[in-house]
Design brief:
The chain is mainly beta. 3% of the residues lie in helices and 41% in strands. A five-stranded mixed beta barrel has the order 4-5-7-8-9. A four-stranded mixed sheet has the order 2-3-1-6. Strand 4 and strand 5 form a beta hairpin.
Length: 126
Amino acid sequence: MAISQSRARRKATGGRYIDYRKKRQHELGREPSFTKLGKKKVLVLRVMGANRKLRMLRADTANLYDQKSKSFRQIKIKTITDNPANRHFIRRNIMTKGSVIETELGKARITSRPGQDGIINAVLIS
């Protein structure tokens, strides 16, 4: 069965909406990519309008921005220490936007969306 991003089947009160049409192709969704820690692996998807979307499945490096020196460096990721999206993502080493990662230079917060952008950008926090 397809994942749909259309209107919910039930109202806020709990009553049902009556279906007035079938699912449409532009309402389709996909399973989340769950970017993990490991050797780099990127998947290229064709999306609406014949565009391309990069989906990062695994990564071991991040583009780290240091606010003091105002420079970017590509740094190796050691582990994931915190993830506000889901506390269970920490033990599974899943990276999302807002995750705190441990790097060679210290802790950093991910600012990009790895499952959507195909790249990991982070800002040094300590």
